[in-house]
Amino acid sequence: MSFAKKKHREGGMQLSIISFTKKGWELSQKIAVSIEKATTCRVYTKCSALRGTAAEAGTEYVEESLEAWAHSQMEEKHVLLFVGACGIAVRAIAGSVKDKLTDSPVLVMDELGQYVI
Fold first, then answer.
1. CA–CA separation, 117 vs 110, rounded Å?
2. CA distances in angstroms from 101 to 13, 44, 97, listed in the order given
3. Of 27, 80, 20, which Cα lies nearest the Cα of 50?
4. What angle do CA 28, 10, 73 make, to 5 degrees?
5. Cβ distance 74 to 11 under 8 Å?
6. pLDDT value for 11
7. CB 78 within 8 A of CB 14
8. Distance in angstroms (rounded) separating the CA atoms of residues 45 and 54
9. For residues 21 and 111, is the Cβ–Cβ distance under 8 A?
10. Burial of 110 (0-12, 13-18, 19+ CB in 10 A)
11. What pTM was estimated for this model as a whole?
12. Angle at which helices 86-93 and 66-75 pack, to 10 degrees?
């Protein structure tokens, strides 16, 4: 059994998806719907164009700094999926990275959904 499935069955795994543009947010919504039965998933955005309407679509707008958001997600041991540039994710998690054996898994996906790192 994979670590992800084991943690989900124990009730501890959550995927936190964050986007920075409307296109990235649309992909985030599709991902959340497609995996909702496999794991707990929450969608966040920092796209200012979605500030007033994000909550209506079940998305949380992130007011705090991206670094503070990433730190709190990693403290909670959530899996992070950044939909956007890899450099954004690297800078966001840099201050929270401690050890590859205990840190949260972090993924980065391009806005077209073609590549995942």
1. 9
2. 16, 26, 11
3. 20
4. 45
5. no
6. 56
7. yes
8. 8
9. yes
10. middle
11. 0.86
12. 70
* Distance from the Cα of residue 100 to its chain's centroid: 18
Q: What is the mean pLDDT of residues 90-114?
A: 96
Residue pair 106/80 in contact by the 8 Å Cβ criterion: yes
pLDDT at 66: 97
Going through 20-105 in order, the beta strands assigned E by DSSP cover 40-45, 59-61, 79-83
The whole-number average pLDDT for the span 43-55 is 91
What per-residue string of b and e applies to 34-64 under the rule 16 or more CB within 10 Å gives b? eeeeeeebbbbbbbeebeeebeeeebeebee
Cite the beta strand spans of the chain per DSSP E: 14-19, 40-45, 59-61, 79-83, 106-109
Q: Which residue has the tokens 């401690």?
A: 98
Q: Which amino acid is at 82?
A: F
| CA distance linking residue 28 with residue 51, whole number of Å | 16
DSSP letter for 71, please.
H
